[in-house]
Each structure stands twice: as structure tokens, then as C-alpha cells.
Amino acid sequence: MKNPLGLRILLGVLSSASPFLPVALRAGTEPYKVVRTEKVGGEGGFDYVFADSAGRRLYVPRGDRIDVFDLDSLKPAGVILSTKSVHGVAVDPTSRHGFSSSQPVVMWDTGTLATIKTIDVQGRPDGILFDAMTERVFVLSHRAPNVTVIDAKDGSIVGTLDLDGAPEQGVTDGRGHLFIDVEDKDNVAAVDAVALKVTAHYGLGGKGGGPGALAIDAQNHILFSFCHSPHSAVIMSADDGRIIASLPIGMGVDAAEFNPATMEAFSSQGDGTLTVIRENSPSSFEVEQTVQTQAGARTSTLDGATNRIYLITAEWAKPTPEPTPAAGQSAPASNSWHRRGPMVPGSFTILVVGR
Predict the structure, then answer these.
(1) Residue 343 has what DSSP assignment?
(2) DSSP 8-state symbol, 168
């Protein structure tokens, strides 16, 4: 180096200016972006997408079935049939058993994708999660019973839970505690996963309403509750529900994840955005980036092996025009991303976000 003094001065200037640089640049990393778009087609609606990082499979519920893809190549790997609407998937990597949130629940071998059994449950299955400590699957329902608990080893029903409201998404700390956002009551229910008892309800304190997604930093006991109204992330202590911060997100959130490898929380929104929140410390958080994805990409899943986020969406025909309001009346408010016509055939798409 011909001018080490000049280099030291330049580095000093950049260091002093670092608080004003973009977060991604300060961290020495590239920003997130859509790195792959795969139009895989197929008919039917869709809800929660799930990445089985250990088994390298991507599960995509499509109404009366689950389409399965290779997580790396995104090539079709098989189909799991169901009798009724499928909303989500959970996998026990130890027993290699998969489960659908459907009625009945379908249990399958994740290696062969062969159905092992079907399990009759009550309510209206929606969200679903697996807890490794108890080796149990928790099926969430907007109608009672709000939670049906299944032994992941043999598919037997262990019990049920009443959350006094409609659950959306649940997370586990891996130490016997579950947390489930209760959308219509604006709170997060804390659950003893062993005793199957609700131990507390953490209110959102008016910082957010209609929580539609939940993520957890299990190591630091931090919950990220992503809300519809206002569009915000309410960050709280998992120990006592103390609210630490709230940050803005996009519109139409329906899924969230936390990546302990990067200390980032992600929320996917139907308005075509993926919000990335950086945890600088257990008491300091900031919106690191808003990634433009695609309208309708409201659910997502994290592949912890590659640190990539997978989202699903499709294209829709133009909606029927709203009637012109009569004289003296204002036009009704509407969400442009949510108001749409029928799905365009063959347009179903998997998006991959990474650095």
C-alpha cells in the first residue's frame, strides 16, 4: 500500500459515519433480494408453506393435497392427498413423520411420502407446529378446541387446549414452552407444552392488533408478534410479556420466522413485502430492510441450512370494478393486493429470498 496514512484516514471517516449507513452495509453483508422465481403451476388455493431443512423437502398445501418439492432444486418430489382443505405442515425430523393441518389430519412417512394414518380431529385446523422437546404436534383451530395435541411418534391424540380465542401461528422455545398468537383477542398465549395448560396471556398494549404471525428468539426469550392493525411488529419478553419495542411492517402479514444464525426476524406480507428486523441486542431492534417480493406472497418459511426464505404466491385476473359511489358518497376503502379476480391458471409460483 503506497499511502497507509491516507487509508487510515479513510477508514476513520467511514467508521465515524457508520451510524448513518444502511444497516446491511454496516453489517458487512449484501442486502436480501429475490434470488429465484420458479413458476411451478398447479391448481388450487394455498396457505402455509413449510421447509423441512433436515429432509430437504418443501411442502406446499394446495387445498385437497400437499405438493412436495425438492428444497434445493424445486423439482416436484411427490403429492400427499387429503380429503379436505389443507392449511399447513409440521415435521418431526427424528421419527420422520409429517402431519397436515387438515380434517382429518394426515400422518405420513417423510422419506417415502406414504400415508401412515389419518387422525380425526375437531375444530377447523389452520396453523400447526412441532415441539421437539415433547415430541408433540400442535394443531391450531379458530374453533374449539383451539389446539389439538398429537404424539408425533404414533399419531395418537394426547389432549386439547382452550385459548379463549382464535389462534394463528405458534412457536416453541425448545424448553417446554409454547407461544401462540390469539388473533381476535390481541394477545399471545403462553402454554406449558408438557402439562398442556395456558399459563398466561400477553397483551399487545395497543401497539398492534390482530396478530397474524409469530416468531421467537429462543435463546434470548424474545417474541415478535406481527400484527394487522396497525401494521406492526410488537416485540416482547417471552418470560413475562413485557413490551420492548414496536416497529412498522407491510400490510397483510400471515407468517414469520426468526433466524438465530443471523439474529433477524422476517415477516411476509400480502402486499408483496418481506420485512427484515435486526436484533442488535435483546433490547435494541430495527427494520433492517423491506424486500420487494410479489403481491400475495403472505406466507413464508425459513430453510435454516441455507438461511434462505421461501414464499408462495400466484397471479390473479383483474377484479370486477367497484361500483361508482352515488353523489355525496365516498368510495369504500380497499386493499389493492387483497382485492382480486380469479387465479390465473398455471401461475402458482415459489419465490426464494437470500443474499
Answers:
(1) B
(2) E
DSSP 37-58: EEE---SS-----EEETTTTEE
Total Cβ atoms within 10 A of residue 62: 19
Measured CA to CA, the distance from residue 234 to residue 200 in angstroms comes to: 17
Domain ranges of the chain: 34-320+335-354
CATH fold for domain 34-320+335-354: Methylamine Dehydrogenase; Chain H (2.130.10)
By mean pLDDT, which of 21-30, 212-221, 285-294 is the weakest?
A: 21-30
pTM, full prediction: 0.88
Please tell me the chain's helix, strand, coil percentages from 3-state DSSP, rounded to the nearest 5: 5, 50, 45
The full DSSP string for 85-150 is EE--EEEETTTTEEEESSSSEEEEETTT--EEEEE---S-EEEEEEETTTTEEEEEESSSSSEEEE
**Look-up of cell digits 503506497:** 2
DSSP type of residue 1: -
Place of cell 415459489: 350
Using the 8-state DSSP alphabet, how is residue 329 labeled?
A: -
The pLDDT of residue 5 is above 50? no
Say how far apart CA 60 and CA 330 lie, in whole Å.
Answer: 40
As a whole number of angstroms, the distance between CA 83 and CA 178 comes to 29
Q: Please report, as a single letter, which amino acid is at residue 183.
A: E
Half-sphere CA count of 116, side-chain side, radius 13 A:
19
CA angle 79, 80, 81 (to 5 degrees): 115
As given in the structure block, the three cell numbers for residue 295 are 403481491
Q: Which amino acid is at 62?
A: R
Q: Which residue has the cell 395418537?
A: 156
